[in-house]
Amino acid sequence: MEFDYVIVGGGSAGSVLAARLSEDASIKVCLLEAGGGGRSILVRAPAMGAAMVSGRPKINNWAFKTVPQAGLNGRRGFQPRGRALGGSSAINAMLYLRGHRKDYDEWAGLGCTGWSWDDVLPYFKRAENNVRGADDLHGVGGPLQVAEQSEPRAISQAFVEAAGQAQIKHNDDFNGVHQEGAGLFQVNQFFDGDKKGERCSAAAAYLHPVMKLRPNLKVITGAHLSRVVMNAKRATGVDYIRGGGKSTVTAAREVILCGGAFGSPHMLMLSGIGRAQDLRVHGIDVVHDLQGVGQNLQDHLDYTIQVRSKRRDVLGVNPLGLWKLARAGLRWRRDGAGMFATVFAEGGAFLRSEAGLARPDLQLHFVIAIVDDHLRKIRMPFGYSCHVCVLRPKSRGLVGLKNASPTSAPRIDPQFLADDRDGDLLLKGARIMENVLAAPALNPWRGRRYYPHDGSDAALMADIRARADTIYHPVGTCAMGDGAQAVVDAQLRVHGIDGLRVVDASIMPRITGGNTNAPTTMIAEKAADMIRQARRG
Question: Which of 224, 374, 473, 495 is catalytic?
Answer without folding.
Answer: 473
